[in-house]
Amino acid sequence: GRLFLADYALLEGLPTGDIGGHPQFVAAPLCLLWLCPRGHLLPVAIQLSQRPGPGSPIFVPGGRGWALAKLWVRGAHFVLHEMVT
User: Fold this and answer.
1) In this predicted model, what pLDDT tens digit does every residue of 15-47 receive, in sequence order?
2) Helix, coil or strand: residue 23
3) Which residue ranges does the record assign to the Lipoxygenase domain (predicted)?
């Protein structure tokens, strides 16, 4: 009851447009979250695509690319929220 998975599979293959002639992108990440004893939900691992493999690294806190991976999850969360609600 302390591990949760935020799965943004609905975003996989979502068509995106261009802004000013530049293509836009959206990720369909998987984000593993841990409920710490203080009651905070903390991300512990992020994969930016739905399929594992060499081209789909798993980002962890303190590792290279962690801040950027969290940013992609926030973007995906926003897109999913706007799409569904």
Assistant:
1) 999 999 999 999 999 999 999 999 999 999 999
2) strand
3) 1-85
Q: Which two tokens stand for residue 60?
A: 């962890």
Size of the chain, expressed as the number of residues it contains: 85
Six token digits for residue 24: 């836009």
H or E element that contains 47:
strand 41-47
Q: What is the pTM of this model?
A: 0.90
Distance CA(36)–CA(34), nearest Å, equals: 6
Let me know the angle formed at the C-alpha of 66 by 59 and 64, rounded to the nearest 5 degrees. 80
Amino acid residing at 64: R
- Please give the domain boundaries of the chain with CATH numbers for all domains: 3-84 (3.10.450.60)
